[in-house]
Design a protein that fits this description.
Pfam family, one: DUF7731
Keywords: Membrane, Signal, Transmembrane, Transmembrane helix
Structural class: mainly alpha
Distance between the termini: 15 Å
Strand content: under 5%
Order of helices and strands: HHHHHHH
Helix content: 55-70%
Amino acid sequence: MAAATSSKLKCFTCFNLIFVAIFCCNVNTGNAQSFPAQSLAKAFFCFNNKFIYTRCNEAYRLNESGNLNVPREATDIFCTGPCLAETQLVLKCVDNILSDFTFYNKATIRDIREVLRAGCSYTSRRGNFDVGDYFQGEISEARALCNFMISLSALTLIIGFYVLIL
C-alpha cells in the first residue's frame, strides 16, 4: 500500500514538473530569458525609461496602450525632432525584450512602426498617427495563441491528475 502511494506521488510530482516545463516553454517571450511576467515588466519599463525618452514632449510619446497622440499640426515637430527617434528606440527596447509584444489596443510593434512610417511620410497619410486607421480591425494572433497554449497546458494537467487518481 505504501509503495503504491509512493509510486503515485512520484508520478504526480513528475507530471507536475512536466506541466511546468510545458507551460514555461509555451508562453512565448521572444528573446527574453526570464519568466513572462518579468519580461512584461521589463518591456513596460521601456515606455518610462528616462534614458530613452529624454527630449520628446510627453504628450506625443507612445504609451503601453499603443496610442500615439500626435495632432496633425505637430507632425513636423514629431517627425523631424527627437520624438520619432526616441519612439523608435522604445519600440526597439520592447522588441528586444518581447518580440511578440501586443499593445492594449491589439497593435503589434510592427503595426506601430507602420504607423510611424506612414504618419511621417509625405503621402496622404502624413500626420495620421491613429493606429486603428492602419490595421483596421485586424487583430494580432499573439495573445490568442498564448491563451490557447495556457488552456492546453491546464487541460493536460487536469487529465493527468484524473489519470493518476484512477
